[in-house]
Amino acid sequence: MERKIIFSDNVEFYLKKLIDTLYDQNYFGFIEDAELYVDEIVLFVINNDFKINVRHTPEKFQKFGKKFLRYKANNHTFWYIFFDQKDDKFLINHILNNHSEDFPDLI
Predict the structure, then answer these.
(1) What is the value of pTM for the model shown?
(2) 3-state SS record for the chain
(3) Which of 3, 75, 83, 100 meets the CB 3.0–4.6 Å disulfide criterion with 88?
């Protein structure tokens, strides 16, 4: 069976908005750099085998997905990618980073 990764509409919207946010808040001087940053997050998910570094989501966050992956974007930022799995199908439900107000509860 072929592996299939699906990003929820909410996640797709969030990632598109993230590009603008990163640029507008001067994290990146060029919109293209913000796009590349977000592309790296997406590529991490697409290229992931979902076998290594998969963690079970704490009870409080299970509304976002039963499992999550952690992606280290740089020395200051980790992204948490929440998903549900059925066989070889992966639904990416939610993404947040360690700068989020919800983050301390995830540790």
Answers:
(1) 0.90
(2) CCCEEEECHHHHHHHHHHHHHHHHCCCCCCHHHHHHHHHHHHHHHHHCCCCCCCEECCHHHCCCCCEEEEEECCCCCEEEEEEEEECCEEEEEEEEECCCCCHHHHC
(3) 3
